[in-house]
TrEMBL record:
Gene Ontology MF terms in the entry: metallocarboxypeptidase activity; zinc ion binding
Biological process according to GO: peptide metabolic process; protein processing
Keyword Zinc: yes
Key words, A-Z: Carboxypeptidase, Glycoprotein, Hydrolase, Metal-binding, Metalloprotease, Protease, Zinc
Residue positions of the active site: E342
Provenance organism: Branchiostoma floridae
Gene3D superfamilies: Carboxypeptidase-like, regulatory domain (2.60.40.1120), Zn peptidases (3.40.630.10)
Superkingdom, natural source: Eukaryota
Cofactor(s) this protein requires: Zn(2+)
Cellular component terms (Gene Ontology): extracellular space
Family: Belongs to the peptidase M14 family.
Name of this chain's protein: Carboxypeptidase E-like
Length: 508
């Protein structure tokens, strides 16, 4: 299928039937604007092994995208409490467009403001991808040609700027226990601010339990949701992300879901996800690519756990229970498998050490991105050959499904082996046997129904456009109520929440 042009959906005619009304005055925030990349061309991109304050971060991302304008763009998914943009730099052979059949990948860094290594490594990764693409590197050209990559160096730019006032010389920022600048400017821990979906999932009646795309509970919107968290939630729902990584500091280990202990009132306990074995295999991809992680004796222990002598990976809840973490949210509410990479004992090391951290992690960062091309992939089409959005892809023996994207394309990361896979949609069902070979690219496993789908709107009206989400500091303290439920009506089911409306109510 050909690439679709980038366009904005018409807001009033298109969304009108789905917008609720309120007696009291309210602001309706429609997140449907694409953030355009700086069009000024830059010179050759070289890695600058230094810390980047917010103005420097903005400049280097835009300069990098301008230098590689044919494969890159910069956009914002929203603003922090203090009004700083949450920048993302994208790499693709068709920037700004979801290409049918091409998986989407993301890295997020600096959720905790004083955990600065991941922030800088993602800046360096962007510079590296651009420079190696320009140099004709076959590996990087293949990766960018077959993958849509999104890199957010800092989810908490306000916290970083606060931590930077003390810098790497203070134990309050740089040690494994340092926390100055960890929280956002609203004093919220962003990795405890997502909805804790595991208890929600477990409390559902078994006969009615959905094992994927679990609805965010209404009570969550009555809690204090940080603007940074809300922006990432909406961003996560707007794109068919397949695989993701979140970069942290304070230890040297890969942590995989579940982070939450669910309904158990304990401090730590192994919390097994349906894809537990797959998560461990993906974690090993990063560990094996890292120069020191998981290699006993290569790194001084950050704490008593000494993960480098225990394979370099851990189940999140077995380490310690986290409620409201991002990786659990991604797994239970979207198609995306996400893990956390703890990159350094020293959260804010001296600038002279940054190049070493880059060299330690470079291959791991690349290998993990390439892992998005494993398992199975394909299309679900109707009798007329059109892609069927929001069809369910189920794998026998794995209690976690995924859904097709707006063009009927899907990706399902799986362990090597022979799998019985079923595609279902509105009463139609087809089952196939799909083989996954270790070390081989994803196996194509297509499905076709005899029925013809009914479209509620032209696909030209809804695109994979990245949305710009803007929440001001004043708004972030208000109670927000969600006008969307992931499966509340067929329109939202078909279009995977590509257009989302948030209602913010003010008392008159």
């Amino acid at each position: 299928m050909g690439k679709q042009p980038f366009s904005k959906p018409p807001t009033h005619e298109f969304l009108g039937p789905f917008l609720p009304t309120k007696e009291k005055s309210c602001w309706i925030l429609l997140f449907v604007l694409a953030f355009e990349v700086n069009s000024i061309r830059g010179g050759d991109v070289k890695i600058d092994f230094s810390y980047h304050h917010y103005p420097d971060l903005s400049r280097v991302l835009n300069d990098t995208a301008a230098s590689c304008h044919e494969i890159s763009r910069v956009y914002s998914v929203g603003k922090s409490v203090e009004g700083r943009d949450l920048w993302v730099i994208e790499f693709s052979d068709n920037p700004g467009v979801h290409e049918p059949g091409e998986p989407e990948f993301r890295y997020v860094g600096n959720m905790h403001g004083n955990e600065a290594v991941g922030r800088e490594l993602l800046v360096y990764l962007a510079q590296y991808l651009c420079s190696r693409y320009q140099a004709g590197d076959a590996r990087i050209r293949q990766l960018i040609g077959q993958t849509r990559i999104h890199i957010m160096p800092s989810m908490n730019p306000d916290g970083f700027e606060l931590a930077a006032t003390l810098g790497p010389d203070s134990p309050r920022t740089s040690t494994s226990w340092g926390s100055y600048g960890r929280l956002n400017a609203g004093r919220i821990d962003l990795n405890r601010n997502f909805p804790d979906m595991l208890p929600v999932w477990l409390l559902q009646e078994k006969s009615q339990r959905r094992n994927h795309h679990v609805d965010i509970p209404e009570w969550y919107w009555d809690t204090q949701v940080a603007p940074e968290t809300l922006s990432v939630i909406l961003w996560s729902l707007s794109q068919p992300f397949v695989l993701a990584g979140s970069l942290h500091g304070g230890s040297v280990v890969v942590s995989y879901p579940f982070d939450s202990c669910g309904l158990r009132k304990v401090m730590r306990s192994y919390s097994e996800a349906p894809d537990d074995a797959l998560f461990r295999k993906l974690a090993k991809v990063y560990v094996d690519g890292h120069r020191k992680m998981g290699k006993c004796g290569q790194v001084e222990p950050c704490n008593k756990r000494n993960f480098t002598c225990k394979g370099g990976m851990t189940n999140g809840a077995e380490w310690y229970c986290v409620s409201g973490g991002m990786q659990d949210f991604s797994y239970l509410v979207t198609n995306c498998l996400e893990m956390t990479f703890e990159l350094s004992c020293d959260k804010y090391p001296d600038e002279s050490e940054l190049q070493t951290y880059w060299e330690d992690n470079k291959e791991a960062l690349l290998s993990y991105m390439e892992a998005v091309h494993t398992g199975i992939k394909g299309f679900v089409r109707d009798g007329a050959g059109k892609g069927v959005p929001n069809a369910t892809i189920s794998v026998e023996g794995v209690d976690h499904d995924v859904a097709t994207a707006s063009d009927g394309d899907y990706w399902r990361l799986l362990l090597p082996g022979t799998h019985r896979v079923t595609a279902s949609w509105e009463g139609f069902e087809q089952t196939r046997t799909c083989a996954v070979k270790d070390g081989s690219p994803a196996t194509v496993c297509d499905f076709s129904f005899s029925a013809t789908t009914t479209w509620f709107a032209s696909k030209d009206d809804v695109t994979g456009a990245i949305t710009e989400f803007t929440i001001t500091p004043a708004q972030s303290g208000k109670h927000a109520s969600s006008s969307f439920s992931l499966h509340s009506n067929s329109f939202l089911r078909y279009y995977q929440i590509l257009v989302i409306t948030l209602i913010v109510v003010w008392s008159s």
